[in-house]
Amino acid sequence: MYGDWILHALIWLPLAGTVHVLVSSAERAKNVAFRWSAFVFVLSLGLWWAYEPGDGGFALESSASWIEAWGVGYSLGIDGISVFMVLLTTFTSAIAILGSFEYVRTRRKAFYALMLLLEMGVVGFFLATDIFLFYVFFELTLVPMYFIVGIWGGERRIYAAVKFFLYTAVGSLLMLVAILYVYFASGTGSFGYDAFVNAGLSLREQLWLFAAFALAFGIKVPVFPLHTWLPDAHVEAPTPGSVILASVLLKMGTYGFLRFLLPFFPDAARHPVVVAVMLALGVIGIIYAAWVAAVQPDAKKLVAYTSVAHMGFVVIGVFALTLNGLQGGMVVMISHGISTGALFLLLGMMYERRHTRLIGDFGGIGRAAPWFATAFVITALASIGLPGTSGFVGEFLALLGTFETHMVVAAIAATGVIFAAYYMLPMVQRVLFNELDRPENRTFADLSRREMAILGPLVALMIWIGVHPTPFLERMEPSVQAVLERVEDARADAGHTLGGED
After folding, report:
1. Residue 362: pLDDT above 90?
2. Can you give the three-state secondary structure of 238-305, one letter per residue?
3. pTM for the complete prediction?
């Protein structure tokens, strides 16, 4: 049986793998890194059975004193929200490392060490139940991603890496100020999760603190208009960096909405102005990103903008403040991590073969590489939310939950599904099924065994979640319901005024 030791192992084993990679030879670095990441993923699979939904609270909790003078603890726990994020992280990390074997040819030891260090930081972020510890892991993820983009990226890699770092750092520093304010306002002398949930803040305080946290998480999502760093980072990042960025790092922002914004500041989260602003930003992100994606000549930049659109569905699902909306947002997070990660892997395979990402340079490669075309089509259809795929389940629930409380918003957001087909299907047509009129495309190699091993599990998950989402929904429902009850309990309490008086 798994005990609380498993959570510690999932954080520190990638660090042990980092050290192992650094002391290995450059030739063995990729194999060492993959074995460690695969081992961590296999170990994390047990969480699917070890976690019992129960009342939606944290399970497998453990805590140890860290900085006693400040009330900081090394506290970990998992619930029906974080369990999926941890599994998504360990799974995509192993896939991304395996997918980098033919891509990374320089400074291999450093690259694979940074990939494992990034995995450690992200898993720690999702498992931390001490707010100071959460912030440490949140900041830790910046460092390896900065170097992955800045060293192994494209021609404008330095610009993209610095922009990514500055955007995220500015938001996180404001969040640090907000964390310290809540720490002192609570009067408990603790950074524990429960201390922050029960801090007893006035509405005015909650609104300001909500803004600080929302800015940090909104940049990470990214929410329109804070999204401009993402296309640059995606385009310039190496393929495994793009996979991790899309599949995992963006989810840190939407996870923050669920884990921290709603429980910590429930009065602010349900304030009509706040709800209206967040829903508006989510809808604008869906529509605007789809329009911009439709005119991109670079396939990788097109897929980068789709991330903004997909995360818009998560935002409206969360701030609809309904069970269907929050569950839909969660499923969109999972589905986007799988399908968009697969799209970036497929685009990386295209680039390795043809050394170009321009859509116009391809055409008819489906005839030369039928297995590649099959994986590409299934992934693209999952991305746009075709019924029977994971994308449909998430978007349908998010829109259904939003329709329950904001019908007009849901109706406008639903047009994003149509626009998704408008930007994705023409790319698929031009790349795979147009005339095979370029000699270099006639020799386009089909999927190798390694590439099939990479894409096979991703495609299987897209179909499994789309056809049978019940196991996922059942595990997340109690924890999502607990978040909603926290907001409703605050509504039932004595009302706050803007000045904090009853």
Report:
1. no
2. CHHHHHHHHHHHHHHHHHHHHHHHHHHCHHHHCCHHHHHHHHHHHHHHHHHHHHHHHCCCEHHHHHHH
3. 0.91
